[in-house]
Amino acid sequence: MNALADFYARHSQLIDQIGINAVLALSLSVSLQAGQLALAQAAFMGIAAYVSAILTLNYHWPTAATILVAVIAAAVVGAALAYPVRRLRGVFLAIATIGFGEIVRVIANNLGVTGGAEGMSGLPQDANTLAIYASLAVVALVLFLLSRTKFALAVALVREDEHAARGVGVDVGTVRTLSLALGGAIAGLAGALYAHSSAFITPNDFGFERMEQILVWCVIGGVTSPVGAVLGAAGLSVLPELIRFLADYREITNGIILLLVIVFVPGGLASLWRRGPVRVRV
Amino acid sequence: MVAQQLLNGLFLGAVYALFAVGYTLVFGVLDILNLAHAAIFTASAFVAFSLAAAGVPLPLAFLGAAAVGGILGILLDRVAFAPLRRRNAGTLVPLISSIGVAIIIGAVLRGIYGVDEKHFTTGGLDTAPAIHLGPVTFTAVELTIFVAAVALMVVLSWVLRATTLGRRIRAVAADRIAAALLGVDLERTIAATFFIASSLGGAAGVLTGLEYNSVTLDMGSPIELKGLAIIILGGMGSVTGAVIGGFIIGAVETLSIAAGLSEWRDAITFGVMFVILVARPSGLFGKRALRQA
């Protein structure tokens, strides 16, 4: 027991990060499952982090209430974003949403209320390990329950063949809007937790690099598999710690491992023990 | 003031265009976004710095570094894209493997050069005289950079239009399978495309390093995303579009500065891109409309 407590004391920060990263990966996997390469997760995360931080620091709301409002705000932004990008697919959707993310970052960089490039600090660290993993469990449960509904069928159909989906009466626009809103809400949850876990946030926490990371986790895990997304996030968050002994060669090893997995494990980590055909197309 | 900023936009836009041309060429031929393009941009700038520091005259250092960029491009393709091409991995997976290569290039550069900013010490860049022409002022360095960037784009356009290699590249871009059936060696054409695209990206990196007389590890990150905005604006895969898009984004950026919105210029750039994507997904010069992933 003591060893366990010791382990936690030494690695609690990493453990918390893994939980938040897993929530982020799940949020992107919601979009990817609907076949949408919408890369606005870092922006949703940032919007929620700032909403939560502003309500905490400027209005002294209780943390839980700020997280709730932040999640709703990110979901609304996600749903609203779905409208202008409704005609875009594939890399075009990816680039439009990356552009959206950059706009959000520049706004956060320049507004007074967000603290500009300095960001906001002094947030209470209320998002402890328990809160983070409870959130992850709730997200996983919601996604699991959703996966047994007709909505999940519609989502899969939109991913595999949009025309066929329309043909059998699936409202593609609604599926896309809902999946962006749901992805926004989950990324927002991660963002609000992040703000209350790290105690300070800056616009660059939510830039393109973050978005790249989230995408890498999902693809390494196995594009359309939520389990894979969590595996990818956990694996790639732990990896830098595992190869810490490589010191100066850590970063390059990281890149090489990433490349090897992509080239030699076509279906991602999730495919390593999953039977049946492997699907990697998005 | 506006004339000066428009001229600055022209200088800035030329380098943007040079970078974006390589980006869009790879997309046009392979339908993939190459997120290692900015890493090669940075690598070439460092190579030029090393060559210049070793006493190589700047024009030769420029060409040498661009060639190294092109070779890196071929290696990038062999390592990150060719294995995926053989199993038809779609567009998303190659995006991730190019991120992997970008991480590796960045790590190698940091290992060799450390994190400090580097400056070109030869060529009298800092003492280059300013040229006054009516209402505008510019330096000989800026003018040289502009001429070099435009010259490379003219050469590229000639290669694509009038040479056998150019015809092969255009054939593969139009229809890979048909081109292969007609006897085009796919792998060699793709390797040539990567050499051209990456040497132009590398050349843009050297010119950017010379323009600010500063070479840093993160010099590629601003242009990486702006490059995306430019190729969207011009129409994905359209080389002409990328050139014009580069100049438009350069002008948008410098005019934002002239309007006193310097802090907001990136938001304005991406706002313009977002509006164009929404209103006209195929861009200004793109022929293909909606694409399915």
List the helices and strands and how they pair.
The complex is a heterodimer of chains A (282) and B (293).
Chain A: H1 2-33, H2 41-59, H3 63-82, H4 90-110, H5 129-146, H6 150-160, H7 162-167, H8 172-198, H9 208-221, H10 226-242, H11 250-264
Helix pairs in contact in A: 1-5, 1-8, 1-9, 1-10, 2-3, 2-4, 2-8, 3-8, 5-8, 6-8, 9-10
Chain B: H1 2-30, H2 37-53, H3 58-85, H4 92-113, E1 130-133, E2 136-139, H5 140-162, H6 164-174, H7 176-181, H8 186-212, H9 220-234, H10 239-258, H11 265-279
Structural overview:
The complex is a heterodimer of chains A (282) and B (293). Chain A is mainly alpha-helical and 282 residues long. In chain A, α1 packs parallel to α5, α1 packs antiparallel against α8 and α2 packs parallel to α4. Chain A has eleven helices and no strands. The mean pLDDT of chain A is 90. The longest helix of chain A is centred in the N-terminal third of the chain and has 32 residues. Chain A has a domain of 195 residues. By secondary structure, chain B is mainly α. Chain B has a domain of 203 residues. In chain B, 73% of the residues lie in helices and 3% in strands. Chain B has eleven helices and two strands, in the order ααααββααααααα. In chain B, strands 1-2 form a two-stranded antiparallel sheet. In chain B, β1 and β2 form a beta hairpin. In chain B, α3 packs antiparallel against α4 and α5 packs antiparallel against α8. Chain B is globular and about 55 Å long. The C terminus of chain B is likely disordered. At the A-B interface, α4, α9 and α11 of A face α3, α4, α9 and α11 of B.
